[in-house]
Amino acid sequence: MTILSLHGDGIACRVRLVRLPRMENSVQTKSTRTVIRELDTLPPLSDPELDIGRLVGLLQQSPSLAARILGIARSSFFAGPLPPRDLEDAVIRFLGLALVRDLSIAFTLESPLRTDKCPRFQAERYWCHALLTASLAERVAKSNRSPLCCQSYLAGLLHSLGLLALVHVAPLQMSTVFECEANPEEAQLCAIERRFLEVDHCQAGGLLAEAWQLPLEIARVMTFHCFDDYQGEHRELVALIAPTERYCRSLTNPGLLTEEELNLRLARLRIPCALWIRVVEDWQPVIDDINQLSRQLR
């Protein structure tokens, strides 16, 4: 068991790496909701501010996590002519404290959730969508001078963590879900998930966030990022992730987001369409690099 404690810019997370039990037999006798609630919990959030030296020391306690961070720093998305020499160089010169913190939290939360038993789960597709959403959300927040800048990247990375929970809990059922989703005549993913599992990945995300005591703002994003009319707590962050994640999904499914729907979402976020267009145009050149980066995270 390894404990990785991370903190910064209003979001703190103490994460316990645990070995979760396989759940294939459990879902046959318990509801999916119950099984997700019974996944090993993570301790409450705490810990003082983290400096780069402490962060590197924590990463070095987890070789697999350190390798993933170093691999990202050496990818074409971040690396220049001279790749990082070691982990400390990767953090200081290439990635920075905030980005490494957010990536480490995402990787650590993801690591106990097994996905290898689901034949149709595509890890590359999952991470590509998470990274695209995180990067676009952060750019939109910065361009709009939003106070959500410090939360936007992590929220984008974790918004669909509930999908991994469903794949872990019910790998064979979710394989069928993904097969149905590939049919253009089928309903949207959430509706298919509810048909087979009586719970969708947004609801699963909310259950997982509650069980693992994740920050409330992250929990709300995980639960409500597919809702157009959410008006509860942290609605500003939810409203930021909602259009960015939908837009990123529409890159491979153009019919998913109409111009009218996008304009309505931007109006809720109070972002002028001209600003959105400018941000997206500036962001589009990094899409190929993120696609390549996601292949390293499979």
Mind telling me the C-alpha Rg?
A: 19 Å
Quickly give the structural class: mainly alpha
Uncertain runs are: 1-29, 41-48
Apparent shape: globular
List strands and helices in order, with pairings:
Layout: E1 2-8, E2 11-17, H1 26-29, H2 32-37, H3 52-60, H4 63-73, H5 87-95, H6 97-110, H7 123-143, H8 149-158, H9 161-169, H10 171-181, H11 189-197, H12 201-211, H13 216-224, H14 235-250, H15 259-269, H16 273-283, H17 287-295
Antiparallel strand pairs: 1-2
Helix pairs in contact: 3-5, 4-5, 6-8, 7-8, 7-14, 7-16, 7-17, 8-13, 8-14, 9-10, 9-12, 10-11, 12-13, 13-14, 14-15
Task: Please provide a written account of the structure.
The model is unreliable at 1-29 and 41-48 (pLDDT under 50). Helix 7 packs across helix 16 and helix 8 (149-158) crosses helix 13 (216-224). By secondary structure, this protein is mainly alpha-helical. The two termini are 23 Å apart. The protein has a two-stranded antiparallel sheet. It is globular and about 50 Å long. Strand 1 and strand 2 form a beta hairpin. The chain is 60% helix and 5% strand.
